[in-house]
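Q: My collaborator sent me two sequences in one message, no labels, and asked for predicted structures for both. Can we handle them in order? The first one she listed is below.
A: Yes, handling them in the order given. First sequence, followed by its structure tokens:
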Amino acid sequence: MAHSHRTSPTDEPTSVRWLLIAVCLAFMALFLVLPLYAVFAEAFRLGWNAFWTALGTKDAQSAIRLTLLVAAIAVPLNIVFGICASWAIAKFEFKGKAFLITLIDLPFSVSPVISGLVYVLLFGSGSLLGPWLKSYGIEILFAVPGIVLATIFVTFPFVARELIPLMQDQGTGDEEAALSLGASGWQTFWRVTLPNIKWGLLYGVLLCNARAMGEFGAVAVVSGKIRGETTTIPLQVEMFYNEYNATAAFALASLLALLALVTLVLKTALEWRYGDELAATGRGH
């Protein structure tokens, strides 16, 4: 009796495999390697001295400081929100849970420029809040608070969306066991919940920080692009380039490119070292 031979769905001819690999490598070379090479080549085209001189200018230093400041404010706030939101969604049942998840995903579907315009409508001179806050000396638009708010909006899903699937997969068994043994709520969080989610949390923080430092659209709308005051690194890159100062523009751009490469390396290391745990975090956003 003849037995039918069932071919594996991945059992393709060698030529097909190499063709697929070649297409992937060509795509990566065209859209990833070549742009990165161009950025670093232009940044160092005039040598190290010109590179460091460009980074040492007053405008470049101001942009770097503001970018670091905004990230230092936005990322910790997103950590707090991400932990609270994921804990509530994963550990409790309540009305409106699906709606809350939808709101968390909102920045993924809304253009950053639109989110910036929303803050202009909320805090602009023609709004109700803007003049009232200004009467107390509080400036939101064209100032650091507006940049921070816009950055928080576009980045707040990253930590939460990494932790929600992880916490849902882990369930509540460990917390219930700790509480039954007499642990308080805070002790349960610090000694049980946080250690269980620490690598997913680090993964989300990594992505959140990279997005916060590289955000352009929302920040461009609310910052006013005031030189030396409200220009982050992406905005300053655009200003340098529009002024035909290519060396300074690509020098700053290389910092963001380096951040992307470091993020990629750390992301890969986390996935390799803690792949089983991170598999539940829905990575790839």
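Q: And the one she listed second?
A: Here it is, processed independently of the first:
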Amino acid sequence: MEAKTHDDHGEDTWELAGRTLRSRLIVGTGKYADEAETRACLAASGAEIVTVALRRVDLKAKDNLLGWIDRDRYTLLPNTAGCYTADDAIRTLRLARELGIADLVKLEVIGDPKTLLPDNEQTLAAAKILVDEGFTVLPYCTDDPIVCRKLQELGCAAVMPLAAPIGSGLGIRNPHNLALIIEQSTIPVIVDAGVGTASDAAVAMELGCAGVLMNTAIAQATRPVQMADAMRLGIIAGRKAFLAGRMPRRMHAHASSPTIGLIE
């Protein structure tokens, strides 16, 4: 399980690939209405890391998405969304490195265009090569404890199991598997995909996840900026609840006030 770390002021922080972070929310940059909405949602989320789909950015264009992101304020996490083979993902990230974008990368190899579920076999193959080449790899994968263990053994900096299919907003479908992954992991576990609202983010944190990555849940909300703030607060509340330790679940009622010693 991810180690709990604190700074000198007692603030809850966490470590990811040698970076000390305060925000446990990572946000995407797709599907927003325009540059202004993108900037406003990023700011409202309180995120320190933002992810960009490299294959959906015209790197030759003078005004592109990368120019909307304040690189002094946010750590850029380029991702390989839209890649369907290990070779495509590796090629895309090598290009990102050549352009000086980043070495911290989100590896995403899709296995099916309808469900957008990850191809674990191709993900494992790409992760091995990228780690060997010195990339800091954060792989998107299914909520399979065995796959997550193998990705950790390959040297990935974190594992990013899905909560539900990308863009579905269904929330955490299998909390038991996520709990198993967290229990066995010595690297951060970051829920990626499927979160729909702030309560979903809170549940992920209550389970003990290190963080949550999301995009559609914010971008397709009726009021995206307000939802970004709600997600920020949901992450904070869920993390505090995890650290506080919830009461035991019981089958029957248990009075808040003891019945012994009642005055007749």
